[in-house]
Amino acid sequence: MTKAEAEKFKADGNKALMANNLSEAIELYTKAINADGTNHVYYSNRSAAYLKQGNATMALEDANSCIGLNSEFSKGYSRKGAALHSLKRYNDAIAAYEDGLSKFAGDAALTKGLNEAKRDKERAEAGPSMGGAGPGFNNLFGPNLLAKVAAHPKLASYMSDASFVEKINKLSTGNMSEDLIGDPRIMEVLQVMLGMPEKDEGGASSSAPAPAPAAVPKQKTEEHKKAEPEPMEVEEETEPAVLAKLKGNKLYSQKKFDEALQAYDEAISLDGTSMTFYINKAAVYLTTKQYEKAVEMCKEGLEVGKANLAPFEERAKAHARMGKAYQVQKKYEEAIECYKNAQLESFDKGVQRTLKNLELEKKKADTLAYQDDDKAEEAKARGNDFFREKKFGEAVKEYEEAVKRAPKNAIIRNNLAAALCKIMDFNGAKREIELALDLDPEYVKAYARKGDIEITMKEYHKAMDSYKKGLALD
């Protein structure tokens, strides 16, 4: 599997976690890790899922893996501290948070976690609160309660409910609160752990029910709820490479182009699998008119994108940026090809407009580049020869070539009109003679030719006007 597939598993895992589908989230994060075991974020996210499920031991294991892969990732220390806090290993939790703060001074999540761990440690050392069930419960259940419940034939069926698992973890600490007392499943756990007879199928008990524990004062219950470490929500972590890119973007906007290039190079060194950084470098080269370097950078980016299954939109952006580099150099064919490739990757209306305008610009440029007065005269001379030899078809071709070479030459268009008349194309002849008159309104022979054509087309009133205009000039 590829890194792109791993990212997809991570994104799906995030959605599952937000929907509280914890088992599904863990499974998806595991698939992401199997696809790319070097990405510390996947372990961090799975740690959060395990902690939310109530499996602090596995959460701690993943947190340690996260830190092992990237010790410069603040969330790794937060994950570790939260897992240790949930396990009531307060000293270790405090040490984890302090370790993180030594690297990331002032980090809000680490500071909050440290304060909560210290607070709960002080409460634990001060003895059980009124809301607790006393040290007898701690000795009776202990940290192995979850395993005992999972091994029981009937109680094990409740383990698929994350809220039940969370309550068992709370019960294992001797923390008997109102939400536990109100859950009949917890009462069943108490019966099993205390060795009391279980209820039969009909729900009747073979002995009198055990008296319910005393009600817990509401204020103390709320204190215990606050004391529980909150599972940390999964976030899309900001990678160092992305931070370097953002730094480059800021420098680019400030027109500090050399520094921007250095920042993008740093991003590439941190994550060589993202083509975005290459495209950003190309933008700098475009702005500084280093067009060849811009093209080369886009090509490198496309290679990286192809190897790492980059999104089609990113590939399209690279093609379009390369097209822009060619366009400003008047390399129309290369630019048009790049824009077309961009549209094949991901259609964009803006790129389509640019492409159409560029095609028109190329057509005009090609027409202008083709013009040559000397070659126009040569083609005209060949046309005259064919006309005298009564090879009117060949004459038309040569005159048309001459028109392409010198589109503003009225005499050539007049000759073309004469040749078109010989092959009975009077509409074409009239079009050419009108263009000749637009180019030279005082061209008397053109008026005479126009009048002749109009008589042939039986447009006698128009012919009269054409002859009068010619006579007015001569």
TrEMBL record:
Q: Which PROSITE patterns match?
A: TPR, TPR_REGION
Q: What is its main location?
A: cytoplasm
Compositional bias (Acidic residues) at which positions? 230-239
Tell me the segments the record calls region Disordered: 198-239
Family matches, as InterPro entries: SGT, STI1/HOP_DP, TPR-like_helical_dom_sf, TPR_rpt
Cellular component (GO) terms are: membrane; TRC complex
Which stretches are tagged as biased composition: Low complexity?
204-215
- Protein keywords: Cytoplasm, Repeat, TPR repeat
TPR repeat residue numbers: 241-274, 316-349, 376-409
Q: Name one GO molecular function term.
A: molecular adaptor activity
Q: How does it assemble?
A: Monomer. Homodimer. Forms a complex composed of HOP and chaperones HSP70 and HSP90; the interaction is stronger in the absence of ATP. Interacts (via TPR 1, 2, 3, 7, 8 and 9 repeats) with HSP70 (via C-terminus); the interaction is direct and is stronger in the absence of ATP. Interacts (via TPR 4, 5 and 6 repeats) with HSP90 (via C-terminus); the interaction is direct.
The protein depicted here goes by the name: Hsp70-Hsp90 organising protein
* Organism of provenance: Leptocylindrus danicus
